[in-house]
Amino acid sequence: MNVNVMTHPLIQHKVTLIRSVETGAKDFRELLEEITLLMGYEITRDFPLEDVEVQTPLVKAIGKQIAGKKVAVVPILRAGLGMVNGLLELMPMAKVGHVGLYRDPETLKPVEYYCKMPTDLAERRIIVTDPMLATGGSASAAISLLKEKGAKDIQLMCLVAAPEGVEVVNRDHPDVRIYVAALDEKLNEHGYILPGLGDAGDRIFGTK
Ligand code: URA
Which of 9, 26, 54, 80 could form a disulfide with 75 if both were Cys (CB 3.0 to 4.6 A apart)? Predict the structure, then answer.
Protein backbone atom coordinates (compact mmCIF):
# COMPACT_ATOMS: atom_id res chain seq x y z
CA MET A 1 0.00 0.00 0.00
CA ASN A 2 1.42 3.35 -1.03
CA VAL A 3 0.27 6.02 1.42
CA ASN A 4 1.95 8.65 3.59
CA VAL A 5 0.62 8.78 7.14
CA MET A 6 1.40 12.14 8.76
CA THR A 7 2.64 11.23 12.21
CA HIS A 8 3.37 14.71 13.58
CA PRO A 9 2.28 14.73 17.26
CA LEU A 10 0.04 17.79 16.81
CA ILE A 11 -1.76 16.11 13.92
CA GLN A 12 -2.24 12.87 15.86
CA HIS A 13 -3.51 14.73 18.94
CA LYS A 14 -6.05 16.68 16.91
CA VAL A 15 -7.19 13.54 15.05
CA THR A 16 -8.13 12.01 18.41
CA LEU A 17 -10.15 15.11 19.30
CA ILE A 18 -11.92 15.24 15.94
CA ARG A 19 -12.92 11.56 16.14
CA SER A 20 -14.79 12.06 19.42
CA VAL A 21 -18.57 11.90 19.27
CA GLU A 22 -18.51 14.76 21.83
CA THR A 23 -16.93 17.15 19.30
CA GLY A 24 -19.57 19.51 17.88
CA ALA A 25 -19.68 21.09 14.42
CA LYS A 26 -17.83 24.30 15.33
CA ASP A 27 -14.90 22.46 16.93
CA PHE A 28 -14.96 19.82 14.20
CA ARG A 29 -14.58 22.50 11.50
CA GLU A 30 -11.80 24.25 13.41
CA LEU A 31 -9.90 21.03 14.05
CA LEU A 32 -10.23 19.96 10.42
CA GLU A 33 -8.83 23.31 9.29
CA GLU A 34 -5.94 23.07 11.78
CA ILE A 35 -5.09 19.49 10.78
CA THR A 36 -5.24 20.43 7.10
CA LEU A 37 -2.85 23.32 7.69
CA LEU A 38 -0.40 21.07 9.53
CA MET A 39 -0.64 18.43 6.81
CA GLY A 40 -0.22 21.13 4.18
CA TYR A 41 3.01 22.21 5.85
CA GLU A 42 4.32 18.65 5.49
CA ILE A 43 3.18 17.99 1.93
CA THR A 44 4.67 21.21 0.59
CA ARG A 45 8.14 20.33 1.92
CA ASP A 46 9.40 19.41 -1.54
CA PHE A 47 8.46 22.74 -3.15
CA PRO A 48 11.51 23.92 -5.08
CA LEU A 49 13.18 27.19 -4.07
CA GLU A 50 15.16 29.73 -6.05
CA ASP A 51 17.44 32.55 -4.99
CA VAL A 52 16.10 36.07 -5.09
CA GLU A 53 17.70 39.39 -4.22
CA VAL A 54 16.13 41.25 -1.31
CA GLN A 55 16.93 44.76 -0.12
CA THR A 56 16.95 44.82 3.67
CA PRO A 57 17.04 48.20 5.48
CA LEU A 58 20.83 47.71 5.61
CA VAL A 59 22.12 45.84 2.56
CA LYS A 60 21.15 43.77 -0.43
CA ALA A 61 20.92 40.08 0.43
CA ILE A 62 20.04 36.82 -1.28
CA GLY A 63 16.86 35.18 -0.01
CA LYS A 64 14.82 32.20 -1.14
CA GLN A 65 11.47 32.15 -2.82
CA ILE A 66 9.20 29.33 -3.93
CA ALA A 67 9.76 28.48 -7.58
CA GLY A 68 8.04 26.08 -9.91
CA LYS A 69 4.43 25.21 -10.29
CA LYS A 70 1.52 27.06 -8.81
CA VAL A 71 -1.09 25.16 -6.82
CA ALA A 72 -4.77 24.35 -7.29
CA VAL A 73 -6.78 22.95 -4.38
CA VAL A 74 -9.67 20.76 -5.51
CA PRO A 75 -12.19 19.74 -2.84
CA ILE A 76 -14.51 16.85 -3.60
CA LEU A 77 -17.98 18.17 -2.65
CA ARG A 78 -19.14 18.47 -0.07
CA ALA A 79 -16.91 17.31 2.78
CA GLY A 80 -13.72 18.25 0.92
CA LEU A 81 -14.71 21.90 1.39
CA GLY A 82 -13.75 21.58 5.06
CA MET A 83 -10.11 21.18 4.05
CA VAL A 84 -9.81 24.19 1.74
CA ASN A 85 -9.23 27.03 4.21
CA GLY A 86 -6.33 25.33 5.97
CA LEU A 87 -4.50 25.09 2.65
CA LEU A 88 -5.42 28.62 1.59
CA GLU A 89 -3.96 29.92 4.87
CA LEU A 90 -0.63 28.48 3.76
CA MET A 91 -1.00 29.24 0.05
CA PRO A 92 -3.30 32.24 -0.37
CA MET A 93 -2.54 32.47 -4.10
CA ALA A 94 -3.73 28.93 -4.84
CA LYS A 95 -6.75 28.59 -7.10
CA VAL A 96 -9.67 26.42 -6.06
CA GLY A 97 -11.52 24.03 -8.38
CA HIS A 98 -14.61 22.10 -7.30
CA VAL A 99 -15.78 18.63 -8.23
CA GLY A 100 -19.11 17.10 -7.25
CA LEU A 101 -19.97 13.43 -7.73
CA TYR A 102 -22.95 11.34 -6.70
CA ARG A 103 -23.33 7.60 -6.70
CA ASP A 104 -25.77 6.26 -9.31
CA PRO A 105 -28.18 4.09 -7.27
CA GLU A 106 -28.35 1.45 -10.03
CA THR A 107 -24.77 1.16 -11.26
CA LEU A 108 -23.28 2.31 -7.90
CA LYS A 109 -20.73 4.19 -10.02
CA PRO A 110 -19.80 7.83 -9.27
CA VAL A 111 -21.39 10.34 -11.68
CA GLU A 112 -20.16 13.92 -12.09
CA TYR A 113 -22.75 16.62 -11.34
CA TYR A 114 -20.46 19.62 -10.97
CA CYS A 115 -16.99 20.47 -12.17
CA LYS A 116 -15.41 23.91 -12.35
CA MET A 117 -11.64 24.05 -12.65
CA PRO A 118 -8.94 26.66 -13.19
CA THR A 119 -8.07 26.76 -16.92
CA ASP A 120 -4.37 25.97 -16.45
CA LEU A 121 -4.70 22.65 -14.59
CA ALA A 122 -1.85 21.08 -16.57
CA GLU A 123 0.63 23.65 -15.25
CA ARG A 124 -0.41 23.34 -11.60
CA ARG A 125 0.24 21.00 -8.72
CA ILE A 126 -3.20 19.78 -7.76
CA ILE A 127 -4.13 18.96 -4.16
CA VAL A 128 -7.41 17.03 -4.09
CA THR A 129 -9.10 17.10 -0.68
CA ASP A 130 -11.62 14.68 0.80
CA PRO A 131 -11.61 13.99 4.56
CA MET A 132 -12.70 10.36 4.27
CA LEU A 133 -11.09 7.93 1.82
CA ALA A 134 -13.55 5.07 2.23
CA THR A 135 -14.18 2.85 -0.83
CA GLY A 136 -11.99 5.13 -2.95
CA GLY A 137 -14.70 5.29 -5.66
CA SER A 138 -15.25 9.05 -5.65
CA ALA A 139 -11.60 9.94 -5.13
CA SER A 140 -10.58 7.73 -8.02
CA ALA A 141 -13.35 9.12 -10.27
CA ALA A 142 -12.48 12.72 -9.33
CA ILE A 143 -8.82 12.11 -10.15
CA SER A 144 -9.76 10.53 -13.51
CA LEU A 145 -11.85 13.61 -14.29
CA LEU A 146 -8.96 15.91 -13.42
CA LYS A 147 -6.62 13.91 -15.63
CA GLU A 148 -9.12 14.15 -18.51
CA LYS A 149 -8.97 17.91 -18.04
CA GLY A 150 -5.19 17.89 -18.29
CA ALA A 151 -3.99 17.56 -14.67
CA LYS A 152 -0.62 15.80 -14.45
CA ASP A 153 0.70 16.39 -10.95
CA ILE A 154 -1.86 15.29 -8.36
CA GLN A 155 -1.72 14.76 -4.61
CA LEU A 156 -4.66 13.37 -2.65
CA MET A 157 -5.07 14.64 0.91
CA CYS A 158 -7.47 12.92 3.32
CA LEU A 159 -8.01 13.02 7.04
CA VAL A 160 -8.83 9.33 7.57
CA ALA A 161 -8.44 6.47 5.11
CA ALA A 162 -9.52 2.84 4.99
CA PRO A 163 -7.03 0.38 3.45
CA GLU A 164 -9.70 -0.50 0.85
CA GLY A 165 -9.79 3.10 -0.42
CA VAL A 166 -6.03 3.44 -0.53
CA GLU A 167 -5.79 0.24 -2.56
CA VAL A 168 -8.36 1.44 -5.11
CA VAL A 169 -6.58 4.77 -5.64
CA ASN A 170 -3.15 3.05 -5.76
CA ARG A 171 -4.49 0.62 -8.37
CA ASP A 172 -6.27 3.22 -10.54
CA HIS A 173 -3.75 6.04 -10.11
CA PRO A 174 -0.29 4.77 -9.12
CA ASP A 175 1.14 8.21 -9.95
CA VAL A 176 -0.95 9.99 -7.29
CA ARG A 177 0.66 10.51 -3.87
CA ILE A 178 -1.78 9.95 -1.00
CA TYR A 179 -1.43 11.76 2.34
CA VAL A 180 -3.57 10.90 5.36
CA ALA A 181 -3.60 11.80 9.05
CA ALA A 182 -4.82 8.31 9.99
CA LEU A 183 -4.96 4.93 8.27
CA ASP A 184 -7.83 3.10 9.94
CA GLU A 185 -8.75 -0.56 10.18
CA LYS A 186 -11.49 -1.25 7.65
CA LEU A 187 -14.90 -0.35 6.22
CA ASN A 188 -18.10 -1.58 7.82
CA GLU A 189 -20.99 -3.08 5.80
CA HIS A 190 -22.43 0.41 5.20
CA GLY A 191 -19.19 1.80 3.80
CA TYR A 192 -18.23 3.72 6.96
CA ILE A 193 -14.63 3.74 8.08
CA LEU A 194 -13.90 1.98 11.40
CA PRO A 195 -13.08 3.40 13.87
CA GLY A 196 -13.43 6.54 11.72
CA LEU A 197 -15.40 9.57 12.85
CA GLY A 198 -18.82 9.08 11.28
CA ASP A 199 -20.07 11.14 8.35
CA ALA A 200 -17.57 13.95 7.85
CA GLY A 201 -19.94 16.08 5.74
CA ASP A 202 -22.67 15.91 8.39
CA ARG A 203 -20.20 16.71 11.14
CA ILE A 204 -18.78 19.72 9.27
CA PHE A 205 -22.13 21.18 8.30
CA GLY A 206 -24.23 20.07 11.28
CA THR A 207 -26.66 18.04 9.14
CA LYS A 208 -27.97 14.57 9.74
N1 URA B 1 -17.71 9.07 4.31
C2 URA B 1 -17.74 9.58 5.57
O3 URA B 1 -18.07 10.75 5.77
N4 URA B 1 -17.43 8.76 6.61
C5 URA B 1 -17.07 7.47 6.43
O6 URA B 1 -16.77 6.79 7.42
C7 URA B 1 -17.05 6.96 5.11
C8 URA B 1 -17.37 7.80 4.07
Answer: 80
Among 83, 193, 208, say which to mutate for ligand 1: greatest number of ligand atoms within 8 Å of CB.
193
| Active site (annotated) includes residue 103 | yes
pLDDT of residue 107 exceeding 90, the answer is no
What DSSP state is assigned to residue 189? T
202 is catalytic: yes
E-assigned strand segments in the chain: 4-5, 49-55, 60-66, 70-77, 95-96, 98-103, 110-116, 124-129, 132-133, 153-161, 177-183, 186-187, 193-194
pLDDT, one tens digit per residue, over 128-175 is 999 999 999 999 999 999 999 999 999 999 999 999 999 999 999 999
ipTM: 0.96
Cα of 28 from ligand 1 centre, angstroms: 14
